[in-house]
Amino acid sequence: METSVKIRRLCLVKKQSISSVARQFNLSRTTVRKYLKQSDPPRYERKAAPASPKLDEHKNQLVKWLEADHQRPVRERRNATMLYEGIQLQGYKGAYDSVQRFVKDWKSETRSAIKQAYVPLVFAPGEACQFDWSHEQVILGGFAVKIKLAHFRLCHSRKPFIRAYPRETQEMVFDAHIRALEYFGGVPRKMIYDNPKTIVQTIYQGKQRQFNRRFLCLMNHYLIEPVACTPAAGWEKGQVERQVGVMRQRLFTPRVKFADLDELNEWLELRCQQLGSRSHPTDKDRTIDEMFVEEAAALRPAMAAFDGYYEQMARVHSTCLVHYDRNQYSVPCDYVGKAVSVRAYADRIVAVADDQTIATHPRSFARGQTCFDPWHYVPVLQYKPGALRNGAPFANWDLPKVLLDIKEKYLKRTGGDKEFVQLLLLIQEHSLDAVAMACELAIESGTSRLSVITNMLHRLTEPEISKPLSITDAPVLQTPPVANPGRYDQLWQQGVE
Questions:
Q1: By the 8 A CB rule, do 402 and 440 touch?
Q2: Confidence class of residue 119 from pLDDT cuts 50, 70 and 90?
Q3: CA-to-CA distance for 464 and 468, rounded, in angstroms?
Q4: Beta-carbon neighbour count of residue 66 at 10 Å?
Q5: The pTM is what?
Q6: Which of 194, 181, 184, 193 shows the shortest CA–CA distance to 221?
Q7: Across the strands, what pairs with 226?
Q8: How many other β-carbons are positioned within 10 Å of the β-carbon of residue 379?
Q9: Residue 25 burial (CB < 10 Å; 0-12/13-18/19+)?
Q10: What DSSP character marks residue 50?
Q11: 14 and 32 in contact (C-beta within 8 Å)?
């Protein structure tokens, strides 16, 4: 383009001859005349597509692969490099450029054949809410972590809600819905989703879906109609799809840093509240919060929160542990060898047996971790008191300082293991605070013997003595009994006879 401008200026403005300009730029006079005839420089145009004889016999196979990939989600489609490697295994000896050119032309023709037109969607207040997941990179506790964001967006007011989770499992879906409905202060009539396995179990023709049974329990609890989008048709929930991109730019670029996931979620909720002051995308004269006031009135009141857990049966190992998600959690020793229900929540693991909660642990998202509750193993110490010294559940046991001091004294003498186990059993019978106070009283009196601690504990826990009975109103004997020792001699004689 620069050469064309110079040639036209020299010939048409400075009136230099075509021959001199041709010699100056080392071009033919014919080329110079072409530049002078048109303002745009002449471009080379291929008159025929380049021949690729080695690819001809493999084109049908490429078309079959491309058509099959076109029915899949975008993230599962093969690129030109993968297709090139595939036909190489079938005997293709040509260059990669030919395959790349063919794939590009096929995709261009396919896109042009599809009409890229959409119908704007309008939703009444309280009618629908859209849900989607996204992946973001953040710094938590000084380490780069990949988190999952649950996105909600009310379709009428565009009110957003975002919450971060370590995974996209079903219990996370439940927790996200519970918190979102609590944040919105009501329940919409329908929720619009993709087709993840945590929500949709089977995709049938058209809009027919077989939803996950446990997910349907969530929908039935809140009386929400679930609506699944057509696969690869993101425009059906375009509001939340756009929200994913917008939030990524506004909130996570550059990468944000937080101490833990709880602090991140507090910040996300605060930002969602701040975004409500922005103008509404369609009604520019009103803000999102002003539109939300209108929509909140149309939402159904939220009932009691859904018990959002994922359940799995597990048998208790001889070490009083149950396995879940590559980690182990302790349960009371009475359930060794029995099957219990392990219920996974977003933040905790609960073990249930006989319709009663028998153990609760904070959930661990690492692998190969073991979560102990030392009190689950105390009854075992009656028969194996030596395990108190090196037992894994009792390492770094968080007990009151007075109990740790007594434990140190007991374990220095023979038989001290059994005495401290008896003290632990007293804690299960009464309470930790009561036993700790009894220990402090015993130490103040100058001893730490178990018998003294037990005596102090009984004094603290025994019921209050009622007032003594008054004997003034007691009945009086009119004829007091007379002692007769002779009766014993009579009884003795009868016994001898």
A1: yes
A2: confident
A3: 12
A4: 17
A5: 0.70
A6: 181
A7: 191
A8: 16
A9: middle
A10: P
A11: no
